Each structure stands twice: as C-alpha cells, then as structure tokens.
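Q: Okay, next protein. This is MAE-28990/MAE-18760-like HEPN domain-containing protein from Neisseria subflava NJ9703. I've checked the sequence twice, so it should be correct. Can you predict the 3D structure?
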Amino acid sequence: MKLIRDDFKEEIKSAQAFFDSIENVEDIDIQHMMYSSMVLILYNIIESTTSKILTRLHDEIIVQHSNGLKYHDFIGNIRTVIYKSNCINQSGKKFNFNDLENLRIKTFDPISEYGKFNLNGNVDAKRIKDIFEEYGISEIKCRICNKLFDLKSDRQKLAHGNQTFSEYGQRTSKEDIQRYLQSTKGTLFNALNNVESYINEKNLNKISKS
C-alpha cells in the first residue's frame, strides 16, 4: 500500500501545482481551459488510484490462497467477490453460487481461476463506497465526498464532447475546482487508510477472526 499511497501523494501534488498555476495565467480563455483540464486530471487520479487499491486487494487474496487459505476460509464478502469475478470452470460450465458454497470436495478451485481485477464504469464516491463494501471494508467517509458525483458528471460532459473546454470553464469557478481537489484527496486518503487497516488486520479470512 505504501507505493500506492506515495504515487497518489505525488499525483495530488502535481494536480495542486497545476491548479495553483492557473491564477498566474492572464489569458482568461486559457484559464477556462485549465479548469477543464483539472477535471480530467482529478478524475484520472480517482480512477487509477481506485484501480490500484482494488488490484492490491485482489493480490492479497491470491497471496493468502498461495499460503494455504482455501475458498471456504475467506469471509462471505470475499467469497462473493470471487464468485462474481469468475464462476465458470474449465469445461465452461457456470457454477451456481449456492452450489459453489456447498462444494466441499472440489475438483475446481475458484480462486485459482480468479482473474485480474478490472475497474469498469464511471467512478464517484458512491461507486467507491459500494465496491469496497463488497469486500466487507468499512464505509468510505469524507465531508465533501458528494462533490465527486459532480466531478464525474462534468468529466463525462467533457469526455463525450457535450461541452468544449472553453464552454465548461466559463461556467466553472476556481472554488468549484478547489472543492473537487479537496474531495478527491479526502475520499482516496480515507479509502487508502481503510484498505490498509483491512489488510493488516487480516479481515479477509475467517481463521484470523476465530
């Protein structure tokens, strides 16, 4: 997690420097476009950092499995995640979740077929919260996390060409971008802390809780 945290700090530092440089630009049109660029920069940070965190969780499951932990040793949340990730055996037959739960003498190990994590779809505070709750991780909290929904919506408008960089910048204030920046920092630092505690306390498996 340290490498992910260090990368995130560096990306936030770069985003902050870019944001601070906006006030030194005299051309108002360029300022508008820089506001739009900040939206894309912050969204990319959110998406990449969330993906890295979840990949780290994925890797921890694989490591614990390699160290002898079996499918039924993991907590229910993790078993559900594994099932959703890959519930098809080598012959192509799809497992029913209840069948997989009841399978004690297995010819198929669902964890060995657990594919690489892939973050699909648009990411905001609610999506981050929902994803981590699937793993049984405590709620992601941030005083202004709700601003990430607005950030996601603004990013979609720019990415899909519904607004030009200039048009978006004209209706956006420096304060709006500052709130997006603070919300990004607060949400992801909270996520990093919660996931790090979750892994360190070995909350993925039932054995450590017994």
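A: Here is a summary of the prediction. The longest helix spans residues 28-66. The chain has a mean pLDDT of 80.
Q: Noted. On to the next one.
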